[in-house]
Amino acid sequence: MIKRRSPSVKASAKACPPSPLIDQLDEIANPLKYARTIIKRNPEYQEIDDAFDDLVHTLTFLNAYNGSTATFNSYRRETERLLQWCWLINGTSLGEIDRRDLEAYIHFCQDPPPSWTGKKQAARFRLKEGERQPNSEWRPFVNKADKLGNMPSMALSQKSLQSLFAVLSTYFNFLIQEDYLRQNPVALIRQKSKFLQRHAYQEPVRRLSNLQWDFILETIDELAQQNPGEHERTLFLMKCLFGMYLRISELVADERSAPVMGDFQQDQDGNWWLRVVGKGNKVRMVTVSDDMLGALRRYRTHLGLPPLPYVGENTPLLAKLRGRGPVTSTRQVRYLVQKCFDLAFERMAAKGLKEEAQELRVSTVHWLRHTGISEDVKFRPKEHVREDAGHASMATTDRYIDTEMRERHASARHKKLKPDFD
């Protein structure tokens, strides 16, 4: 039984950054053994009677998500934060959490103490003298300055809140099934509306303008001409993200799949398709346009390969520039895309288009996917776009149809604040 912390003890815990608990998936294959390692490494947890059992059940839960690194990382982040808050701040075990505790935890996540917040992403553990050691620079929360040096608010976005509720609800349901908990605190928060907003309108899709995309393409094409050894790959990557609206996870190699050139396949009618392993480990076939096929030919010619792939070809779709094998880091891809956005912004600003370029300062990789879908849905059947995008429902694809909002705004454009009365 854990005694709830006094205000002075809570203040002390908030002033000290916690150590990371859970390492990579391959390090926690044995939950019992790894839980003992954590308790031994962190003497402060030895005073908490239920910490060991909390850890074992949490590690068992996380081991069930060994099919996707992204899912594991997301679930590890949320469960680790909750454990640290329970033990260090609230003075409770998982079995003692009630609705009020969970609401307090959500408020804590929206305004974490400075000592728990880092200014950059840092690895949880580092290899030192052949052993995995906690990284003292790691923090449970990260608040990075934007490109202008401004520190954004730590308040969780609606998307982040929805993800938090979804992950913790799944987590608690697992613990109930394991007879470790009796109730799901997330289910007890009846009035989630005070955290989650319901919009009476459809949120606009965040996308690039056609002018911005033109500048991005021109910028990368110029880079590829100046330094083909490095940027022909960048040009091909950007066209894949836009032209086939792929996700980053569908381009890099991980434990689910390793995309290869042989994934480009020609059917009996001579049409080309790309086999993709998407979210939920679902396989889909994406149509390859003539322009995209031309981009593939150009990239393969640069690599010294035949213009088109052959059946069963195992050449990595996105190969490392140095060394052998495929790109495995989504962070590396994000860096490349961000570099393209930054250079395009500079070119637009130099041509007197700084105002039109502003969105490039906040755009992300996923905007390329949004932009590609938004353009295609204007002239392609939305059922076809849905299949290529891998959307689970037509409602998701419908979000990209902005004709109604354009017409609605056009009808209101000439409204007068001082109407003419006849």
By helix and strand content, what is the structural category?
A: mainly alpha
Q: What is the CATH C level class of the largest domain, in words?
A: Mainly Alpha
Poorly predicted spans: none
Task: Report the C-alpha radius of gyration, rounded.
Answer: 25 Å
* Tally of separate helices: 16
Q: What sort of overall outline do the alpha carbons produce when their principal axes are compared? A: globular
Domain Tyr recombinase: 203-414
Domain Core-binding (CB): 43-176
Subcellular location: Cytoplasm
Organism: Thalassolituus maritimus
Topology overview:
Blueprint: H1 7-15, H2 31-41, H3 51-63, H4 69-90, H5 99-110, E1 117-118, E2 125-128, E3 131-134, E4 141-142, H6 158-177, H7 185-188, H8 210-226, H9 228-243, E5 264-266, E6 272-277, E7 283-287, H10 290-302, H11 330-350, H12 354-357, H13 366-376, H14 382-389, H15 394-398, H16 403-412
Helix pairs in contact: 2-3, 3-4, 4-6, 8-9, 8-11, 9-10, 9-13
